[in-house]
Design goal:
With 317 residues, this protein is mainly alpha-helical. The protein is 71% helix and 0% strand. It contains eleven helices and no strands. The chain has helices spanning 2-7, 22-25, 32-63, 75-86, 95-120, 129-162, 172-183, 192-218, 228-257, 267-278, 287-315. Helix 3 (32-63) crosses helix 5. The radius of gyration is 21 Å and the shape is globular. The model is unreliable at 8-30 (pLDDT under 50). Keywords: Membrane, Mitochondrion, Repeat, Transmembrane, Transmembrane helix, Transport. GO terms for molecular function: citrate secondary active transmembrane transporter activity. InterPro entries: MCP_dom_sf, MCP_transmembrane, TXTP-like.
Length: 317
């Protein structure tokens, strides 16, 4: 019996998962799916609480159009007016939406990425450049469809509602009920095309950069550990790359999900009208606050996720 066990070869083994790092840590044992969901949820909650004010400011600036309705002259003016009018916690309006959606988003993202790896990994346990982009793209598209689009739509509507003299939404559930009652279930799926484009390109860029930097650091030695501060540094670089790569898509997505989205016939129509009335620079509105948020976001996500998975793999066999 013992000899059978010794000769048994797991047909589903994934040798690359023995490496140290976020992607590697995500597949250490048979319980990895549940571990990933819990670790991702905890990581997402911590990360959002730390970085949400920059996401709030970014969204406000992206919704702020030229003309008589323009409210803010810049980042600091937005922060100043928000705190003056609604207090410090006004910068956290819409936070509950992201908290509620963090667990499924993380579960879908990491789950699909790991599953895609099964089909795209090379025999030596590595991913080609095409594989890295493909796995990241699959993860981004999946999370956009199943978690990010409804979550982001409600978040943007919450922040947009706060810009009104008399906000209508009294809380998360009241806001969701109001949106669904007035617009139907499709009301929380506004900007789905733009969101899929954004998340797909986001994760394709981030995972590609992260995996490439990790491979570069290891220098061909797959057993070489990657220190957590290096993981965080690589995550920050990956986050910055995704910001410069897809902020125009993020601007269109935000406007397609706002309360004034009805004036756009489609994602393409939103792009054309924004270009025509505000020029190409409008597609980089909110880049600075988004950059500060995303760099810390991705750095924190990979670092905390790695750390939590290390603990899970130690105490949860």
């Amino acid at each position: 019996m013992s000899s059978r066990r010794e000769n048994f070869k797991n047909p589903f083994s994934r040798p690359w998962m023995t490496e140290t790092g976020a992607a590697a840590a995500a597949g250490g044992s048979g319980s990895i799916g549940l571990k990933g969901v819990i670790a991702g949820g905890i990581t997402g909650g911590i990360e959002i609480c730390i970085t949400f004010p920059t996401e709030y400011v970014k969204t406000q600036l992206q919704l702020d159009e030229k003309g008589g309705t323009k409210k803010y002259s810049g980042i600091f003016d937005c922060v100043k007016k928000t705190v003056k009018g609604h207090g410090f916690f006004g910068l956290y309006r819409g936070l509950s939406v992201l908290l509620y959606g963090s667990i499924p988003k993380s579960a879908v993202r990491f789950g699909v990425f790991e599953q895609a790896k099964l089909y795209m990994v090379n025999e030596d346990g590595t991913l080609s450049n095409t594989g890295k982009l493909g796995c990241g793209l699959a993860a981004g598209v999946a999370e956009a469809i199943f978690a990010v689009t409804p979550m982001e739509t409600v978040k943007v509507k919450f922040i947009n509602d706060m810009r009104m003299e008399k906000p209508r939404f009294k809380g998360f559930f009241h806001g969701v009920r109001t949106i669904v009652r007035e617009e139907g279930i499709g009301g929380v799926y506004k900007g789905a095309t733009a969101t899929i484009m954004k998340q797909g390109s986001n994760q394709a860029i981030r995972f590609f950069v992260m995996e490439s930097l990790r491979d570069w650091y290891k220098g061909g030695d797959r057993d070489k550990p990657v220190p957590k501060y290096i993981v965080g540094l690589f995550g920050g670089v990956a986050g910055a790359a995704s910001v410069f790569g897809n902020t125009p898509i993020d601007v269109v997505k935000t406007r397609m999900q706002g309360l004034e989205a009805a004036k756009y016939k489609s994602t393409w129509d939103c792009f054309i009208k924004t270009w025509k009335h505000e020029g190409p620079l409008a597609f980089y509105k909110g880049t600075v606050p988004r950059l500060s948020r995303v760099v810390f976001d991705v750095a924190i996500t990979f670092t905390i996720y790695d750390s939590i998975m290390d603990v899970f793999n130690y105490v949860w066999k």
